[in-house]
Amino acid sequence: MITNEVIKNQDVVIKDGNIISISDTNDNRYSQMVIIDGSNKYIMPSLSDAHVHLPKNESDLEKILTLNLINGVTKLRSMRGNWKHLEWRKKYNTKLSIYPKLYLSAPPVSRKFDFSSEQLAAYVKAAKAFDFIKILSIKSEIAFKKLDSLCKINNIKIGGHFLGNVSDDALFNSNFTSFEHLGGLTGSLDLLESRSQVIKDNTIFICPTLSWYSVGSGRYSYQELRNRVGMEYISNSIVDGWIEKTKAYRERIGLEAYQEEVANELKKLDYKYQIIKRLNDMDVNMLLGPDSSSKYMVAGFGVLDEMKLLKNANLSNYDILKMTTINFAAFFNENYGTIEEGKEADFILLNDNPLENLEALKSIQGVYFNNNYLDDKYLTELSKSMIPN
After folding, report:
1. What average pLDDT does this structure show over 107-114?
2. pLDDT tens digits along 255-298
3. How many whole angstroms separate alpha carbon 59 and alpha carbon 82?
4. pTM of the predicted structure, to 2 decimals
5. By CB count within 10 A, which of 279, 289, 307, 363 is most buried?
6. Domains of the chain: residue spans and CATH
7. Residue 334, by phi and psi: left (phi above 0), alpha (psi -120 to 50) or beta?
8. How far apart are CA 346 and CA 69, in angstroms?
9. Residues 233-249: pLDDT tens digits?
10. For residues 282 and 280, what is the distance between their CA atoms, to the nearest angstrom?
11. How far is residue 147's CA from residue 164's CA, in Å, rounded to a whole number?
């Protein structure tokens, strides 16, 4: 993933979870080592999902983690935190865990909170145990500046929604490191150009979350919704409930209003594609996350769906794959995201080349993560265990 090319016939040697050498294939060199046969396969960095909402109950967490894993996703950025998530991470991200690594947001800030100075200080102090603070909205610019000031003092990053009631000057000179959903970029062309340049200059990352808007547009028929990728991992009763709610809504507003709504939403989506193309041309850092927090969106499977939507922005496969590998590693200043000597061994094996066809990611042949290797047989059994009875 350093360049948009394939390097053929290479041996990747791993010791203690790190890549120690990459060299031309030599079958006689590794007699004292465990061999993973990658003949006629492709190796690339494992994937990430940069916009995840963890479930309310821990009983559902293991399934979500596993569904990501079987899709080659080994890193998750939580975007709707809870204090209990620290305990979840301690339990599921052990030294040799196979579960994806969790990057956690503190419980989110919103405009409904009216912190006193003491309450705000206590919140920020508690939030230091997390990777960042998520802001959904905020009461005022004054409130934002107070929060940001404490974040700067405590070296806490901020991520979340673009705040319409805060000036650009305050926002872009804050500890914000990522904006979700293309917020602040869907207005006038002048704002798009000026804000995009400042975002690039300040190394702020953008996470578009196209899938949430695509599914929410209403564009899909009931049968298409039932057949969406990964739906076999959702119980029939839950899917039936989703369909009934969707039918009730469409019938309530009427056919004409429904068709008009879909047309408007798809028009907005087309504009988002144009914005993403512009951001990519400017080399603005982008992260990949479908925001699989709504019905008809299945954890893990949404990552490839998001990639397919990004193709509508005329991005190359390489540009898209960078979002979920190199860029995610850079965002958290981690030592993975590429296959290089000295990097952590965190990769997947594929039968086909994803630089040519993203569909190659539909069949993960192996996952190496956290010094564990999960082969095709293991992944298949893991997958079967997640299908509801």
Report:
1. 95
2. 999 999 999 999 999 999 999 999 999 999 999 999 988 899 99
3. 15
4. 0.96
5. 289
6. 46-337 (3.20.20.140)
7. beta
8. 12
9. 999 999 999 999 999 99
10. 5
11. 16
